[in-house]
Write a structure and sequence with these properties.
With 302 residues, the protein is mainly alpha-helical. Helices cover 45% and strands 4% of the residues. Keywords: ANK repeat, Developmental protein, Repeat, Ubl conjugation pathway.
Length: 302
């Protein structure tokens, strides 16, 4: 019996598979439904849920979960069903998995995360769903284990940061969503940072990266609004030739220079201070605070 039918475009079709399993009673066993078999991508052992999520068959994803499929079971690459659903751009399957309790951060056994990938490809709709279900918009969950050992990994590169990658690919809406959700505007990490171990010539902070990648002025304005430390950018030590080779957006550079030369307003400083005091995990509670609606919207940058 062929377990997966190939579609004309070469992608697996799960509807016949689910019908076969249902009619033959194959999904009555908890062990069977979470069994990893060589069904997908040539010789990659995968569970039925992982295959359904890859193909974007939301009805099959929902069916398998209701029959007892483990939502956070990883494949040999350390990828969860949620991660592959995000990678393949399947919003419906992503929402179904999140509603079923899937970890929005993916697995520690895989170096990338759903938030990182959505930020890289500019899927702000998927990113919104991940944030709504508590995804960490920083990279702390990958740097420091839950057990909190005496030592912890330090951030030594911005490349692993969702905020950085959204800027590098000029995905402004994802960049804004990450900041609104509480992402650190300087390093996209609230843990220890070791800038001395950053790759030579690489950006020293997110603002530095935004300027180097020629992002439009809106990126700079957002970082300023969300309280980025402008003094982390060491442009004073660079000559005009070095700056010219970076192909910076002239308007963005002008916005940065003006922001650094003019003190921020007390109103702006107060908003940043209140948001930091609340912490990113409590920002979603702002709408429930006994405050006038304009103040709530102000704190949420709406």
């Amino acid at each position: 019996m062929q377990l997966i039918d190939g579609s004309p475009c070469g992608r697996p079709t799960l509807l016949p598979l689910c019908r076969q399993f249902t009619s033959k009673g194959f999904l009555t066993s908890q062990d069977r439904i979470n069994e990893k078999s060589v069904w997908c991508c040539g010789w990659l052992p995968c569970t039925p849920l992982r295959i359904a999520a890859t193909a974007g068959h939301g009805n099959c994803v929902d069916f398998l979960i209701r029959k007892g499929a483990e939502v956070d079971l990883v494949d040999v690459k350390g990828q969860t069903a949620l991660y592959v659903a995000v990678v393949n751009g399947h919003l419906e399957s992503t929402k179904i998995l999140l509603e079923a309790g899937a970890d929005p951060n993916g697995s520690r056994h895989h170096r990338s995360t759903p938030v990182y990938h959505a930020s890289r490809v500019g899927r702000d709709d998927i990113l919104k769903a991940l944030i709504r279900y508590g995804a960490d918009v920083d990279v702390n969950h990958h740097l420091t284990p839950d057990t909190r050992p005496p030592f912890s990994r330090r951030l030594t590169s911005l490349v692993v940061c969702p905020l950085y990658i959204s800027a590098a690919y000029h995905n402004l809406q994802c960049f804004r969503l990450l900041l609104q959700a509480g992402a650190n505007p300087d390093f996209n990490c609230n843990g220890p940072v070791n800038t001395q171990e950053f790759y030579r010539g690489s950006p020293g902070c997110v603002m530095d990266a935004v300027l180097r990648h020629g992002c439009e002025a809106a990126f700079v304005s957002l970082l300023v609004e969300f309280g980025a430390n402008l003094n982390l950018v060491k442009w004073d030590s660079l000559g005009p030739e070095a700056r010219g080779r970076r192909k910076m957006d002239p308007e963005a550079l002008q916005v940065f220079k003006e922001a650094r030369s003019i003190p921020r307003t007390l109103l702006s400083l107060c908003r940043v201070a209140v948001r930091r005091a609340l912490g990113k995990y409590r920002l979603h509670l702002v709408p429930s605070l006994p405050l006038p609606d304009p103040i709530k919207k102000f704190l949420l940058y709406e």
